[in-house]
């Protein structure tokens, strides 16, 4: 249980990452991914990378610069511009549904304008899921200058689109529905220089 704990990625740039194990029974027709990050990086970095053998950017949450998030589904992406960070924790949730292709993006508990991506697509179930690196091949092919350095916590993946009040609940660290990946019951493996520490403040 990682309650009130964080992964600290200590080096910059870094070859370290965390492998997450999720039990996916079938391909995803919709999903929501949420996480909280704290970094002073201004270069591009990867937060959440979900690759299949067919598509290395099957799901990717990527930050090319401090005021921008890129959210990939099936190798294509939409961009969300956010306020330039005040060097504080940032909480993001991104959800996608195949039937409409609608992407919803929530930043620090607030919804951004919805966008469209990959209508009718299906996300493959046999996946390598990593924190802190961007996969260019299944489980590997890292560019160190896309690596994450800083602190990550509250990582979740659901096989459904969360309701607006659940998106807010994720931001406030309240009770959440059962998830494929849940921070309080995370099955993970650290590779390289990543340390689990208590969170410094709420």
UniProtKB/TrEMBL annotation:
Domain Pentraxin (PTX), first and last residues per copy: 3-202
Free-text comment on the cofactor: Binds 2 calcium ions per subunit.
Protein name: Pentraxin family member
Keywords linked to the UniProt accession: Acute phase, Calcium, Disulfide bond, Metal-binding, Secreted, Signal
Cysteine pairs bridged by disulfides in the record: 34-93
Gene (UniProt): Ptx2
Gene3D superfamilies: 2.60.120.200
Subunit structure: Homopentamer. Pentaxin (or pentraxin) have a discoid arrangement of 5 non-covalently bound subunits.
Annotated source species: Setophaga kirtlandii
GO cellular component, one term: extracellular space
Localization: Secreted
Cofactor: Ca(2+)
Family label: Belongs to the pentraxin family.
């Amino acid at each position: 249980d990682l309650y009130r704990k964080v992964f600290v990625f200590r080096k910059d740039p870094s070859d370290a990452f965390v492998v997450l194990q999720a039990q996916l029974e079938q391909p995803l027709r919709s999903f929501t991914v949420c996480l909280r990050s704290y970094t002073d990086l201004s270069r591009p970095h990867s937060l959440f990378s979900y690759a299949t053998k067919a598509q290395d950017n099957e799901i990717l949450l990527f930050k090319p610069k401090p005021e921008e998030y890129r959210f990939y589904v099936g190798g294509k992406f939409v961009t969300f511009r956010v306020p330039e960070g005040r060097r504080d924790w940032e909480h993001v949730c991104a959800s996608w549904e195949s039937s409409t292709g609608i992407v919803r993006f929530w930043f620090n508990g607030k919804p951004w304008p919805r966008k469209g991506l990959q209508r009718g697509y299906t996300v493959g179930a046999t996946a390598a899921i990593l924190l802190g690196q961007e996969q260019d091949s299944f489980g590997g092919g890292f560019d160190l200058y896309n690596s994450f350095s800083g602190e990550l916590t509250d990582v979740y993946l659901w096989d459904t689109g969360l309701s607006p009040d659940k998106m807010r609940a994720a931001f406030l660290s309240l009770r959440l529905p059962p998830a494929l990946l849940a921070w309080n019951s995370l099955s993970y493996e650290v590779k390289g220089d990543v340390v689990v520490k208590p969170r410094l403040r709420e």
